[in-house]
Write a structure and sequence with these properties.
Layout lengths: L14 H27 L1 H8 L7 H17 L1 H15 L1 H19 L5 H4 L2 H31 L5 H29 L2 H8 L1 H5 L1 H13 L5 H8 L8 H37 L3 H29 L1 H24 L5 H19 L2 H6 L7 H16 L3 H12 L4 H17 L12
Helix pairs in contact: 1-5, 1-7, 1-8, 1-11, 1-13, 2-3, 3-7, 3-18, 3-19, 4-5, 4-7, 4-18, 5-7, 5-11, 7-8, 7-18, 8-14, 13-14, 13-16, 13-18, 13-19, 13-20, 14-15, 14-16, 15-16, 15-20
Length: 434
């Protein structure tokens, strides 16, 4: 299935409204991925504070931490279905406002949670509950944000506008890494473990309030307004939508898996498997995210000119071929720090080739009447399985096999599958406005 499900229903509007929609849509993605990045970067600290009772091993605690991480991702499809259905019925704007309130509240509360030493076994349950709320809100964020961005996009610019969703993901991960690196520099290891880890989560409150203000000023999209004027809006058959969701998830599974492997799981992998320090791991992650951010917008813009397919295929093929050699460079003790830095930068950059056109590609697969739900579910399902489980799968498989090449194999195999799904995309350049 290479074409969209019936008509796209994507329209355009005045430039100032388009820019406002771009900012309001992007800001929630920034907060979402800032928090998910922070959780990944502080996974070892969180494991020690919430999942390590007396006598428990560090590896066991880390696995439990990633299990909580994965659980939040598995609630994303639930959030995508719940908020997506609301967004396709009552509008993008009110649902995106609800989502940002829930996301901000859940993330801020993590910063004040009591630890295992204080409340015992209740601590991991409280953390897991808040992770579930984050998963629900994150599931509702992507579909609405991308719908708003692409439905307001000028003709021939859906790839560029949609790429800002991925770009703010990179900014969020970079923001989380930057805060983690700063805290690791100015605080002692003891201070970081005692209370310093709480600060990044508490910073979400002012960011969330700013995002809420922006979304309160957001207009409803022209496409949805037109849909509301129709007496009985046309909805495609459920089976057809389900096929499009499955295909969309397959097309982005490599982006989901490689992205989280290189951009979030990397710090814990470097520390637990390659004996890197916390600071070295965070610096490597910052470089990977810089590479990711550098290619996203150009990739989205290029996809408006030559089509989504060739740009995304290039990224997926490069990860398939380069994943193992790049990881081997990191494992080699004789490799200079400069070369290692270049390796992680390239790893992030090739993922950006998939992430740039990805949102527009998904948006174009669904008509207005089911767009919020359809693209949100495709993204959420792919991320639940291939991002949320990345840390758990990689950590547990390394533990069982002893092979430190597992992250590269995981990224390469998932991207190879995405190549097959991406081959179903139409070859011709994508033109806006249809």
């Amino acid at each position: 299935m290479g074409a969209p499900v019936h008509g796209s229903g994507l329209r355009t509007d005045r430039p100032e409204r388009s820019r406002r929609a771009l900012v309001a849509g992007s800001v929630g993605n920034f907060i979402e991925w800032y928090e998910f990045g922070v959780y990944g970067y502080f996974a070892t600290v969180i494991a020690a504070r919430f999942f390590t009772p007396e006598g428990g091993s560090e590896v066991e605690a880390l696995v439990k931490t990633y299990a909580s991480f994965a659980l939040a991702f598995f609630f994303r499809p639930v959030g995508a279905a719940l908020f997506g259905r609301l967004g396709d019925r009552v509008g993008r704007r009110p649902v995106l406002i609800m989502v940002i309130v829930l996301m901000t509240a859940a993330t801020t509360l993590i910063g004040v949670l009591p630890t295992y030493d204080t409340v015992g076994a209740l601590a991991p349950w409280l953390l897991t509950f808040l992770r579930v709320l984050q998963g629900l809100s994150a599931g509702g964020e992507f579909g609405g944000a991308v719908s708003v961005m692409t439905e307001f996009a000028p003709p021939g610019r859906r790839g560029l506008y949609g790429s800002w969703q991925s770009f703010t993901v990179a900014l969020g991960l970079l923001g989380g890494a930057g805060v983690a690196a700063l805290l690791a520099t100015v605080l002692s290891e003891g201070q970081l473990g005692d209370w310093g880890w709480r600060l990044p989560f508490l910073l979400t409150l002012p960011m969330g309030l700013g995002a809420l203000w922006l979304r309160l000023r957001l207009d409803e999209t022209p496409s949805f307004e037109s849909l509301r004027e129709e007496p009985l809006p046309e909805r495609p058959p459920g089976r057809e939508v389900a096929k499009a969701i499955a295909l969309g998830a397959g097309r982005i599974m490599g982006w989901a898996a490689a992205g989280y492997t290189f951009l979030v799981v990397l710090p814990s992998y470097l520390q637990s498997s390659l004996n890197a320090t916390f600071q070295q791991a965070v610096v490597a992650t910052v470089l990977a995210n810089l590479g990711f951010a550098a290619t996203i917008i150009p990739a989205g813009l290029l996809s408006d000119r030559i089509g989504r397919r060739p740009v995304m295929l290039t990224g997926a093929l490069l990860v398939t071929v380069l994943a193992v050699p790049l990881l081997n460079l990191l494992q080699n003790t004789g490799t200079s720090n400069a070369v290692k830095g270049g390796a992680v930068f390239v790893a992030g950059a090739v993922v950006g080739l998939m992430a740039g056109p990805g949102p527009a590609m998904l948006s174009e697969m669904f008509p207005t009447s089911v767009r919020y739900t359809g693209l949100g579910l495709a993204y959420a399902l792919s991320n639940a399985v291939f991002s949320g489980c990345a840390g758990l799968i990689i950590t547990e498989t390394i533990k069982r096999t002893g092979s430190v090449d597992i992250p590269a194999y995981y990224a390469a195999v998932t991207c190879a599958v995405s190549v097959l799904a991406l081959l179903t995309l139409r070859k011709e350049p994508v033109q806006g406005g249809s």
